[in-house]
Design a protein that fits this description.
GO molecular function, one term: peroxidase activity
Family: Belongs to the DyP-type peroxidase family.
Radius of gyration: 19 Å
Protein name: Dyp-type peroxidase
Strand order of the largest sheet: 4-1-3-2-8-5-7-6
Mean pLDDT: 93
InterPro entries: Dimeric_a/b-barrel, Dyp_perox_C, Dyp_perox_N, Dyp_peroxidase
Number of domains: 1
Helix content: 25-40%
Order of helices and strands: EHEHEHEHEHHHEEHEH
Largest sheet: 8 strands, antiparallel
Pfam families: Dyp_perox_C, Dyp_perox_N
Low-confidence stretches: none
Structural class: alpha+beta
Number of helices: 9
Length: 306
């Protein structure tokens, strides 16, 4: 039975660190070996700092997958869907490797990042590092509870992890989109509470859906999850804040590439069923979008032998 990376379905933490790495050409064999050792490193750090609830995810960029693992490719893994919305720019960026580290202690995240980079030293270069944090008990910088429709408990695994009957080689793996969004907080806070709730599609305090007569067809809730009874995507978002720039680090995990494609195209107003793009995107600029696959630990270890 495939062993999934525990960070994919882990519950929310206080701090998130995201290493965006580019691999040096010709280092594929050594990288396969070292990437397979990262889950063990995360386990060791999680045991040492047990109160921090550390978890990690190793994800491979769709553009780099065939070089690193030429023997097999997850069905549907592609760069990003072609979306030609005139007013939405995805800012697609190729990233070879993404390392996601989350815990309840910032110092533990720092130590983990240091040890990851020590292990991968001379094989990669850092393209960027993003830092997220928990804000107001699970809210994003809009002041609203973030993704209240997220699947819970065992449904998290069903939504985000590939079943062995679908793709035996990639069982326990997960497709993932990373997006970095910059928040226009000045414009947002000029809106009234009612205007904000209409854009979001749910109550600011309780996160309950608005009354049916108030729900706009292009509200954020409906654009991100049209069918609340059948979620297809697990979101792992964290606000990010710097004095000059603030926003959201958004990670979407799914058991199929089509589920991520559907959500993104629907949100950008490019689906046949869309009534326009997500209204919340009028207050966020997409700074970066990249597509990845997070293989199971079993796949990482088996591939390291080749």
């Amino acid at each position: 039975m495939a062993r999934e990376q525990l960070g994919v379905c882990a519950e929310a933490n206080l701090h998130g660190s995201y290493l965006l790495l580019n691999a040096h050409e010709g280092h594929e064999r050594l990288l396969r070996s070292k990437l397979a050792r990262l889950p063990l490193l995360f386990d060791r750090l999680a045991e040492h700092f047990s109160e921090a609830q550390l978890s990690g995810v190793v994800a491979i960029g769709s553009n780099y997958w065939d070089l690193l693992y030429p023997g097999a490719r997850p069905v549907g893994l592609s760069m990003l869907p072609e979306l030609s919305a005139a007013d939405i720019e995805l800012a697609a960026v190729p990233v070879d490797i993404l390392i996601q580290i989350r815990s309840d202690r910032l110092d533990v995240n720092i130590i983990s990042c240091q040890q990851v980079l020590q292990m991968l030293d001379s094989h990669v270069e850092i393209q960027d590092q993003l830092q997220g944090c928990r804000y107001l008990d699970g809210r994003n910088l809009t002041g609203f509870i973030d993704v209240p429709w997220n699947p819970k408990a065992r449904n998290r695994r069903q939504v985000s992890l590939i079943d062995a009957t679908e793709q035996p080689v990639f069982a326990g793996g997960s497709y993932m989109y990373l997006q970095q969004l910059v928040f226009d907080h000045l414009s947002w806070h000029q809106l009234s509470l009612a205007e904000q709730e209409d854009i979001m599609g749910y109550d600011k305090v309780s996160a309950r859906p608005l009354e049916e007569h108030r729900i706009l067809p292009d509200s954020h809730r409906l654009m991100m999850q049209p069918d609340l009874n059948a979620p297809e995507v697990l979101m792992q978002n964290m606000p990010s804040y710097q004095v000059k720039q603030q926003g959201l680090i958004q990670l979407a995990y799914a058991a199929s590439a089509q589920a991520l494609h559907r959500q993104l195209s629907y949100r950008c107003g490019m689906s046949a069923h869309s009534s326009g793009h997500d209204l919340l995107l009028n207050y966020h600029r997409i700074e970066l979008t990249a597509a990845f696959f997070a293989p199971s630990i079993s796949f990482l270890e088996l591939s390291a032998k080749n």
